[in-house]
UniProtKB/TrEMBL annotation:
GO terms for molecular function: diguanylate cyclase activity. Signal peptide: none annotated. The keyword Nucleotide-binding does not apply. Its EC number is 2.7.7.65. Gene3D superfamilies: 3.30.70.270. CDD domains: GGDEF. Pfam families: GGDEF. Keywords: Membrane, Transmembrane, Transmembrane helix. The chain crosses the membrane at residues 16-39, 59-80. This is diguanylate cyclase. Residues 119-251 form the GGDEF domain. It catalyses: 2 GTP = 3',3'-c-di-GMP + 2 diphosphate.
Length: 283
């Protein structure tokens, strides 16, 4: 009768009762073995105050009443103590992986999910545009309301196959899986448009917000840190091109080379946007 599995399952109350029942039976069996080893020799030596059969019967009764009952009660107490500890540990683990304001996963949990991601998927880094200006103009309570509202939109827009997290501040990360690339990009763009089209009401203020996004592809064999860096560069480019847009890493290279061509053709007349694009891609 193995008890090893029970110690890993104390988060379930039913397993606590099973554990206590097993311990009671073990106590009875152990008591029965002791009785079987001690009473017959005592009877043979004439040291029993009753007959051998009565002594064995009394021993069996006491092993059930005392050994089984006491062991069961102690096991229940121990089991429920372990149950509370397991629940507390699970709650602590959940809190350590959750962003308290948005209720989304935090950066640590997102990084772990990113490392576990295999197969075809897209990594998106979203950033709320001009968030500092929102905080400065409307106050931090409104800024928190913006974070909460954006979190709700992201959580509702992506299914259970995707991973949504708040990476810190006004930055969010999403791992989009389960669809072809073009469908994933359409969904990401739809999220951007949805947020841009609905003002957020907070503290008696209506706040119009937009978000920018950078997208990189997660494919087999590609380094996850490189994917993250590429999505981050694409986000930088989306900001440099005027914000309120989503840029895929392929578009980033196109814009970067376009900016380089601009430099050669008309160095004096190129705009600040071209400089930002080239800087984002190290050109």
């Amino acid at each position: 009768m193995s008890l090893q599995a029970d110690f890993g399952d104390f988060q379930y109350r039913s397993h606590v009762y099973v554990f206590a029942l097993k311990m009671s039976f073990l106590a009875v069996i152990f008591s029965g073995v002791i009785i079987a080893l001690t009473i017959p020799p005592l009877g043979f030596l004439g040291l029993l105050p009753v007959t051998l059969s009565h002594a064995i019967s009394f021993g069996a009764i006491f092993s059930w009443l005392i050994g089984g009952t006491v062991s069961g009660m102690l096991s229940l107490a121990t089991g429920f103590t372990m149950h509370e500890l397991m629940l507390s540990r699970a709650e602590f683990e959940k809190l350590s992986r959750t962003d308290t304001l948005s209720g989304l996963l935090n950066r640590r949990a997102f990084t772990e999910a990113l490392d576990r991601t295999e197969g075809d998927a897209s990594l998106v880094i979203f950033d709320v545009d001009r968030f500092k200006a929102i905080n400065d103009r409307f106050g931090h309570a409104c800024g928190d309301a913006v974070i909460t509202a954006v979190s709700a939109v992201l959580l509702s827009a992506f299914d259970e196959l995707s991973v949504v997290a708040r990476l810190g501040g006004e930055e969010f990360g999403v791992i989009v899986s389960g669809e072809p690339l073009e469908a994933r990009l359409e969904r990401i763009e739809a999220v951007r448009a949805s947020i841009a089209g609905r003002p957020i009401v907070a503290e008696d203020c209506q706040i119009a917000i937009t978000i920018s996004g950078g997208v990189a592809d997660l494919i087999a064999g590609r380094n996850k840190q490189q994917v993250y860096a590429s999505a981050d560069r694409a986000l930088y480019l989306a900001k440099a091109l005027g914000r309120n847009r989503v840029v895929h890493e392929r578009e980033g290279l196109h814009h970067a080379w376009h900016g380089l061509a601009e430099t050669g053709a008309n160095a004096e007349g190129r705009g600040l946007g071209s400089d930002n694009v080239m800087h984002a891609y190290g050109i």
